[in-house]
Amino acid sequence: MRKFTKEIASLLATVTVGLSVNTGSAASEECVKLEGEFTTPDGFTDSMPEELVPTAGVAINQDITNGTTTTTAMIGTTTATRTTATTYGCIGTTITTTEATETTTTTTTGLIGTSIATPEEIVTTTTEEIPPLAGLLAPPDGDANCDGDTDMSDAVLVMQSLANPNKYGIDGTAENHLTVNGKYNADMDGDGLTVGDAQAIQKKLLGIE
Amino acid sequence: MDYTISITNKCNLKCSYCYERHLNTEYGCITNEIKTKIADFINSQGNAEIIYLFGGEPLLYKDTVKYYCENVKATEFIITTNGTLLDEEFIKWCADRKNVIINMSHDGSECTERGADTAILDANLKLLLKYQPETLVQLVYTEDTLPKLYDNIMYLKNMGVKKVSATMDAFLTPSDPDSFGDIMREQWRKIADIPKFFVHELATKKNTIKNNKPSLCEICKKKLFINWDGSFYPCVQFQNIPEYRCGDIFVGIQAETARKAHPDYSMVSERCKGCEIAKYCRNSCACRKMATTGTVRDISEAACMEEQVHILTALEILSKENGGMKQ
């Protein structure tokens, strides 16, 4: 465990964070400007805007693209709030399509893992495709040998790496063995490299869905 | 799209923590031909929001800085300078244009890590504050200056500074990580209690926690770094690294190869997998990983500690703002 994660977990367990329609807490309702974009919380009436001043050379990296108000109840708490439920998966896991709802929701969120949302009132429902946590990466395209093209040699390499991993797998002895990047590119369905991926590559080359 | 233009990587100072020294780059500056081509390229894209004018020290070539402010269509221009070459004429020129902001570096009461005369920096900072009262001052702290971080920020506050960004030396490897963490914790706790004072890192972290949305970055999608030789890279820390080169002003943005070759660009590193606070952390940022470890596959121990402290401090602030601990 990291040095401060216990303290953080303790605070997360007891502090209600985020914006609540009913709290009227001026300090928590902030307009923030980050690199030219504004995020305005719903129910915002008056408060001093806290401006995030853009900097360069500072490795800060935030993309706040939608005026979405998000409230997350931490473990052990319940909050009646307006919530957009968002789920991110790490790269390699199934990308989840989640319903983003405008609703008054009582949410109990596990610090790790599970989330149980009980909507009390559903106003509107939209479907939001969630990108993987690793960023807005280009989806795998079958280029197993990382030569910039997707062709039969990629399907062959996938099969070779599965049939003879000692030689063609990630730590293989062959000069043209599969690499970590190639494995990512070839994992067409996101469930790990299988013969199904070799088939998917061939289907792609044939133009078959 | 935000563009960072590196006017030059030359500098008149030799800050011990500067990434330029560690990148071992060839030293140069924008030529006249490259200068106009960069402006033409950005204008042709028609999507410039913020233009960062960067270096090295960009004010070594003030005319080039002015050229971009006058000839590129963008929402805002931000000049990051060490402050030593500021003069009233230039500051006034920037202030009159309304959309040109100067961010100045200043480390507080002792600027020995930068080899700069503190008195000159103080004088120039006060001059800048006269025309730009909301100046963001960028402070870098090392392991040696960390125990005085609060004092240095107060030094700046007492000069009239209202906004600060306090960044840790990217190459910091603490001799005693445990003690380092304790000192950092104590300093940031004190900083958080400074009234009516904007600290960039805490404001950003509060925002991240409230929005509960991990930060995402893709090669050359929302940011582009343009080197002084006209070549493109995803971000500051990737300049002159051939495998991350993403085109240039002659051929345009060509990022697909780099994207394919580096699917781990914005991945959490091995040490972060399973971390309970990863979603509040910025250590999946490729620039940050590269700056602290020289690879996008790992993040330094010190950077991890820094994020823990920021998250903890931001949570404490939010707790107080919400009226204390609530069930």
How would you summarize what this structure contains?
The complex is a heterodimer of chains A (209) and B (327). With 209 residues, chain A is α+β, with helices and mostly antiparallel strands.
Account of the 3D structure:
The complex is a heterodimer of chains A (209) and B (327). Chain A has five helices and five strands. Chain A has 209 residues and is of the alpha+beta class. In chain A, the strands form two sheets. Chain A has a three-stranded antiparallel sheet with strand order 3-4-5, with no helix packed on it. The longest helix of chain A is centred in the C-terminal third of the chain and has 12 residues, at 152-163. Chain A is elongated, with a radius of gyration of 23 Å. The two termini of chain A are 45 Å apart. Chain B has 327 residues and is α/β, with parallel strands linked by helices. Chain B has a domain at 2-211: TIM Barrel. Chain B is 39% helix and 14% strand. Chain B has helices spanning 19-23, 32-45, 62-71, 88-97, 118-131, 149-158, 177-192, 200-211, 256-261, 286-293, 301-321; strands spanning 2-6, 50-54, 76-81, 100-105, 136-141, 163-168, 198-199, 223-226, 232-233, 247-248, 252-253. The radius of gyration of chain B is 20 Å and the shape is globular. The interface between A and B is large, with 66 and 83 residues.
